[in-house]
């Protein structure tokens, strides 16, 4: 079992905060210190107990940490590596990052970082369109792919330690070359983001003249554009550090759009149906439970007496404190047996606050594994 004395998280947002929570719940670390430019978010991370101490700059805390996680937007990750390369870092300390693109960062680390510092590039394939510490979850990485892109010259012991660290929080670690990583994620993550944003842009333009467009934007449109709500800064950096693969795929899209335009123009039922059939078949064959925050619920159960009005009582307690219940389910409802309610929330913060309130009202609370 891996256990670090002290971990530094630079960027205590969605991913940094989720890693901190996961490390705590799996005994990976004794003490976590956090650095963030955003004082409000940093103080929230401290008050929620996600980190033990907060600093505004890495210089103030770096000297005695055993693992540094860079969880900031991609271009800031390179800036942080530049800062760290000039600081007195503890011997044996490992640096890793979580950035969505890997080639530029790994190239920078290989050419600029002192040789006695082990940098192991990383990228969890789990996330959300939400940002910030309040969206963080200790279970975000469970069963998710976690890609590592170590340099061939990196100390194998450091790579192994990082691998074991992420396996301990129940992620599935894959080791990959950074260039191959960037080509694949361009297709499965970056171009889909551009396309989702284009769909929104088109409907937004049409909606300027007619408000019915946004009123009628229902399930299908919302499903396919959820990711367009992601952080513009994060996505700007991702696209700018993965230009070649993204451009290659977007040019390929132009050809594909021309094909479908021709089939529709020619009213060609065979081509149109076969296009929808082969894309449906491929989509349906994807592993059913590929993990990501979109499918992640922040939930717990409580014991309740089997009597009328109990659901209303729970909903009122939460409603009075402006906590949004995402879903409520009855797990057991037999006569003379207490029931259980399963409560789901959209954020870790809502889940924590709801647990605190319901405990205060005498309910027995169970967090589901
Ligand atoms: N959101 C996702 O789905 C997802 C998934 C996997 C990887 N990533 C990668 O993780 C990284 C962080 O993304 P996130 O979703 O956690 O974003 P986030 O906005 O939730 O968190 C980023 C945090 O970094 C802080 N920050 C920015 N610049 C900083 C600097 N120079 N010094 C200190 N703090 C700084 C911000 O204030 C913020 O709190 C990005 O590189 C992103 O590409 C994101
Ligand atoms: O689920 C989402 O909302 C995400 O955007 C997560 C997602 C993805 O595209 O799958 C986004 C960027 C990351 O680099 C990794 C994961």
Automatic annotation (TrEMBL):
Q: What class of enzyme is it?
A: oxidoreductase
Q: What is this protein called?
A: Prephenate dehydrogenase
Question: Where's the ACT domain?
Answer: 299-369
So which domain of life are we looking at?
Bacteria
Q: Which reaction does it catalyse?
A: prephenate + NAD(+) = 3-(4-hydroxyphenyl)pyruvate + CO2 + NADH
Instruction: Tell me the protein family, please.
Output: Belongs to the prephenate/arogenate dehydrogenase family.
All copies of the Prephenate/arogenate dehydrogenase domain together span 5-294
State its Enzyme Commission number(s): 1.3.1.12
Give the PROSITE patterns listed for this entry: ACT, PDH_ADH
Q: In which pathway does it act?
A: Amino-acid biosynthesis; L-tyrosine biosynthesis; (4-hydroxyphenyl)pyruvate from prephenate (NAD(+) route): step 1/1
Q: Which organism is it from?
A: Effusibacillus consociatus
**Which GO molecular function entries does the Swiss-Prot or TrEMBL record give?**
prephenate dehydrogenase (NAD+) activity
Q: Which UniProt keywords apply?
A: Amino-acid biosynthesis, Aromatic amino acid biosynthesis, NAD, Oxidoreductase, Tyrosine biosynthesis
Keyword hit for Kinase: no
